[in-house]
């Protein structure tokens, strides 16, 4: 038996239920993984609430973890028992101390990256990788706007963009978060709850606007994102932490300067084994080079996942958060 935090229905944080479950032997192509750390991400909230459907109930949620391989299913030849591995990929079920996982969705960890750091960086770090290298490739000298700059994805993005040589404008909700973002490479911060973001971006760019806005917030920042873009700029809408943008007239893109809009997901950018390993290796390189430092600012016991969700939704967290099995 192993500890699993599962949902039997969709709803608020209190539907997260700790319980003991059996873990079967790994099937062909799978490994059994004893997890040492589990990543907390906003997509977990979407699965908990039902915004993103889960295959069936009851079910554990979670898409990110790291640990040690304990057993191999038939046909697994690329991994060995004792290997340290990490993942940020379906199937759901990371909120579990021991789980089975498809071997081709796991990546080996470099010796100098521990499992807690790995669990805090895989989903957020590979998200930043595809956003700034593949969705809209940022070049040295560009100025970009990144919403929620003090969050887990935001802090990694600020560092990565700074290393590229871009000027980073970040939105934040408090002085403390502004200082945190600046300490991680953000050049200018805007208080989204006090200032007109679009006007401030135009001031910082001599009236031009930015070529790209990275927006993982959604409804609350939608208008600000559009109004911050330069002519033929791109809005990269990669999340909806504040709510879904339910209605949008595409004619607005023409009206505001022939803008581009995309709604990418990490899973599409790591769908093949080649894409997955290239993304993970690019992230590992940035971390090992020191360009990106992963900061685990909150830890919770796995059985306290409900409290972790409450803090995440209340914007009490900064940087990365992990859950720790006992």
Give your account of this protein's structure.
This protein has 326 residues and is α/β, with parallel strands linked by helices. It folds into 2 domains: 156 residues, Medium-chain alcohol dehydrogenases, catalytic domain (Quinone Oxidoreductase, Chain A, domain 1, Alpha-Beta Complex), CATH 3.90.180.10; 124 residues, NAD(P)-binding Rossmann-like Domain (Rossmann fold), CATH 3.40.50.720. Strand 1 and strand 2 form a beta hairpin. It is built from 10 helices and 16 strands. It is globular, with a radius of gyration of 20 Å. The relative contact order is 0.15. The strands form 3 sheets. Strands 3, 5, 6, 7, 8, 15 and 16 form a 7-stranded mixed β-sheet that branches. Helix 2 packs across helix 3.
């Amino acid at each position: 038996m192993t500890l699993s935090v599962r949902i039997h229905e969709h709803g608020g944080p209190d539907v997260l239920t700790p319980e003991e479950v059996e873990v079967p032997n790994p099937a062909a192509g799978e490994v059994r993984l004893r997890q040492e750390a589990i990543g907390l991400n906003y997509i977990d909230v979407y699965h908990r609430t039902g915004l993103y459907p889960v295959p069936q109930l009851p079910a554990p949620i979670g898409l990110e973890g790291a640990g040690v391989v304990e057993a191999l299913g038939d046909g697994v030849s690329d991994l060995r028992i004792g290997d340290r591995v990490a993942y940020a990929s379906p199937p759901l079920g990371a909120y579990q101390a021991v789980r089975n996982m498809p071997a081709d969705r796991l990546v080996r960890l470099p010796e100098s990256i521990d499992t807690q750091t790995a669990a805090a960086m895989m989903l957020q770090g590979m998200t930043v990788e595809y956003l700034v290298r593949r969705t809209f490739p940022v070049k040295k000298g560009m100025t970009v706007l990144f919403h929620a700059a003090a969050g887990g994805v935001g802090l990694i993005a600020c560092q990565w963009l700074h290393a590229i040589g871009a000027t980073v404008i970040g939105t934040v909700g408090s002085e403390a978060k502004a200082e945190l973002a600046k300490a991680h490479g953000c050049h200018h911060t805007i208080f989204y709850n006090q200032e007109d973001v679009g006007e401030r971006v135009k001031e910082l760019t001599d009236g031009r606007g930015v070529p790209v806005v990275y927006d993982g917030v959604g409804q609350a920042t939608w208008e600000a994102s559009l109004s911050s873009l330069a002519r033929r700029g791109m809005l990269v809408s990669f999340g909806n932490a504040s709510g879904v943008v339910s209605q949008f007239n595409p004619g607005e893109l023409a009206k505001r300067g022939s803008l581009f809009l995309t709604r990418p997901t990490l899973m599409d950018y790591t769908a093949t084994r080649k894409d997955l390993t290239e993304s993970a290796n690019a992230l590992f390189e940035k971390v090992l080079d020191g360009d990106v430092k992963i900061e685990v600012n909150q830890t919770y016991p796995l059985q306290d996942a409900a409290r972790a969700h409450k803090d995440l939704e209340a914007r009490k967290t900064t940087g990365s958060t992990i859950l720790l099995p006992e």
